[in-house]
C-alpha cells in the first residue's frame, strides 16, 4: 500500500487537472491518475465562457490561457433559407459577465496548462498508464486498486474525486445510475484549416438550417477552425470519414481548398446521476453529468464543478463539516445542471436543427432582441450548396 495522500483525483482530463490544481493551491497533497499514457489531444471542447475564465483567473492560469487563445465577443446566428445573419454580442446577451469576451482554444491545451501549473506545487504527482479498477471507502479514507505497467497496487487517500469522464468507472463502482437520455444522432467534430474569417464570417457561426445544421468556430490565431455537424449513428465510422466532405460542400462559402486536420465522431447525451458525493468519494465533470455541446455548456459545467468543489474542500480543510460541504456541492451543481445547463443545451440544439418555418421565425425574433447588427457575409455559397444537396 502506497502512502496516504489528501486526495486522489481519477482522470487527467481538464476537470481532473483543474480540480487537482485548485486543491494543490489549498496546500493539499494530490495524486492524479489516468488510464491513458498521455493527455488526450483529440478535437473536443474549445469555447471558454465567463464562469470558466473566472475560474482560470482564480487558479492563476488565465494569462497562460490568453497566450494560446483568441478572444471572441461576437456570434453569428445564420438562417440560410431567409438570407438572415444576426450578430449578437456576448456582453449584451449576458450583461452580468465578469469578462466581456469568451476565449477559444483547444481543450488539450487547457489540460497541459493546468498540469504544468499543478506540478509546480509541492506534494503533487500525475501518474499516467494507471487505471482504476476498484474502490473501497470507510470513515477515514478511500482506497483505489489500480492496474499499472508494473502490476496491480493499492493507493490510499482521505478523499477520491472521480473526474474520469462520461464512461466513469468510479460512478459505476459506486453503483450510481446515469439517468437521462441519448440523442438519436451522432455529432462529428472536425478541425480544419480554411480562412472562414477572411470570407467575412465571424469567429462563431451557428448555421440553423434543419438537418444540415452546423457550427463553424475559430479555435486559434493560426487559423484552425472547428466545424461540427450531425450524422446518422448507424453509418460505420469509415463511412462517416468519407461523408465529411459532403457536409463541407454544403457549408463552405466557396470552392477554395481546405485541409481537415483531425476529426472525431461522438454520441451526445443529457444525463446525470442522483448524487455527486458518496462517503469519501466525489464526482465532477462528465463523470457526474453530460449534456450536448450546442450551448457551450459541456465542459463549462465541469469547470463550474471545479470552482464549487474546490471551495467546498477549502472549507473542509479549514475545519468545516465535510458532509455539509459535500452535500451542498451536490445540491448546487446538480440543480444547476438539471434546471439550467441541460435545458439550455437542449434548447440551443433544437434551435439549430429546427426545420419548421414558423418556429424558425420565432427563434429569429428572440435572437434579434440581442442583435448588434448584421454581418457582411455572403450566403450565396451556403444557399447554392443547400439547393444541390
Ligand atoms: C469529440 C468530442 C467533441 C466535443 N466537443 C465539445 C464542445 O465543442 N464543447 C463542449 O463543451 N464539450 C465538448 N465535448 C465534451 C467535452 O470534451 C467534455 O465535457 C470534457 O472532456 C469533460 O472533461 P472531463 O475532465 O470531465 O472528462 P474527460 O476529458 O473525458 O477526461 C476523463 C479522463 O479520465 C480518464 N479515465 C477514464 N477512466 C479511467 C480509469 N478507470 N482510471 C483512470 N483514468 C481514467 C480518461 O483517460 C480521461 O483522460 C466534446 C467531447 C467529444 C468526445
Automatic annotation (TrEMBL):
The keyword Signal is assigned to this record: no
Gene Ontology molecular functions: monooxygenase activity
Residue ranges constituting the FAD-binding domain according to the UniProt record: 7-335
SUPFAM superfamilies noted in UniProt: FAD/NAD(P)-binding domain
Keyword annotations from UniProtKB, A to Z: Monooxygenase, Oxidoreductase
Coiled-coil stretches noted in the UniProt entry, renumbered to this chain: none
Domain of life of the source: Bacteria
InterPro entries: FAD-bd, FAD/NAD-bd_sf, PheA/TfdB_FAD_monoxygenase
A Pfam family that the UniProt record links to this protein: FAD_binding_3
Cross-referenced PANTHER family: 3-(3-HYDROXY-PHENYL)PROPIONATE/3-HYDROXYCINNAMIC ACID HYDROXYLASE (PTHR43476), FAD-BINDING MONOOXYGENASE (PTHR43476:SF3)
Designated name of the protein: FAD-dependent monooxygenase
Gene source species: Pseudotabrizicola sediminis
Amino acid at each position: 500500500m502506497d502512502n496516504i495522500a489528501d486526495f486522489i483525483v481519477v482522470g487527467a482530463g481538464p476537470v481532473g487537472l483543474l480540480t487537482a490544481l485548485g486543491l494543490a493551491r489549498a496546500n493539499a497533497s494530490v495524486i492524479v491518475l489516468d488510464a491513458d499514457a498521455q493527455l488526450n489531444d483529440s478535437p473536443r471542447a474549445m469555447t471558454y465562457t465567463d464562469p470558466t475564465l473566472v475560474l482560470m483567473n482564480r487558479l492563476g492560469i488565465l494569462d497562460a490561457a490568453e497566450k494560446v487563445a483568441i478572444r471572441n465577443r461576437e456570434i453569428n446566428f445564420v438562417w440560410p433559407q431567409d438570407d438572415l445573419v444576426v450578430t449578437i454580442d456576448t456582453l449584451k446577451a449576458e450583461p452580468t459577465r465578469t469578462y466581456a469576451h469568451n476565449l477559444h482554444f483547444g481543450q488539450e491545451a487547457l489540460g497541459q496548462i493546468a498540469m504544468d501549473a499543478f506540478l509546480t506545487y509541492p506534494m503533487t504527482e500525475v501518474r499516467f498508464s494507471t487505471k482504476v479498477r476498484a474502490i473501497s471507502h470507510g470513515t477515514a479514507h478511500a482506497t483505489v486498486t489500480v492496474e499499472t505497467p508494473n502490476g496491480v497496487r493499492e493507493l490510499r487517500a482521505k478523499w477520491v474525486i472521480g473526474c474520469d469522464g462520461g464512461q466513469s468507472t468510479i460512478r459505476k463502482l459506486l453503483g450510481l445510475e446515469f439517468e437521462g437520455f441519448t440523442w438519436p444522432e451522432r455529432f462529428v467534430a472536425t478541425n480544419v484549416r480554411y480562412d472562414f474569417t477572411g470570407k467575412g464570417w465571424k469567429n462563431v457561426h451557428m448555421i440553423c438550417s434543419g438537418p444540415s445544421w452546423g457550427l463553424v468556430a475559430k479555435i486559434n490565431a493560426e487559423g484552425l477552425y472547428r466545424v461540427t455537424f450531425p450524422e446518422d449513428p448507424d453509418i460505420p465510422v469509415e463511412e462517416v470519414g468519407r461523408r465529411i466532405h459532403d457536409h463541407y460542400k454544403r457549408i463552405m462559402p466557396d470552392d477554395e481548398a481546405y485541409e481537415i486536420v483531425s476529426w472525431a465522431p461522438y454520441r451526445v447525451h443529457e444525463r446525470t446521476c442522483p448524487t455527486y458525493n458518496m462517503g469519501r468519494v466525489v464526482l465532477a465533470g462528465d463523470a457526474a453529468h453530460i449534456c450536448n455541446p450546442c450551448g457551450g455548456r459541456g465542459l463549462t459545467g465541469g469547470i463550474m464543478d471545479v470552482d464549487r468543489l474546490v471551495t467546498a474542500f477549502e472549507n473542509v480543510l479549514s475545519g468545516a463539516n465535510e458532509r455539509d460541504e459535500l452535500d451542498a456541492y451536490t445540491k448546487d451543481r446538480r440543480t444547476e445542471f438539471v434546471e439550467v445547463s441541460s435545458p439550455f443545451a437542449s434548447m440551443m440544439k433544437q434551435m439549430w436543427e429546427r426545420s419548421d418555418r414558423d418556429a424558425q421565425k420565432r427563434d429569429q425574433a428572440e435572437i434579434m432582441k440581442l442583435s448588434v447588427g448584421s454581418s457582411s457575409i455572403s450566403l450565396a455559397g451556403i444557399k447554392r450548396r443547400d439547393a444541390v444537396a
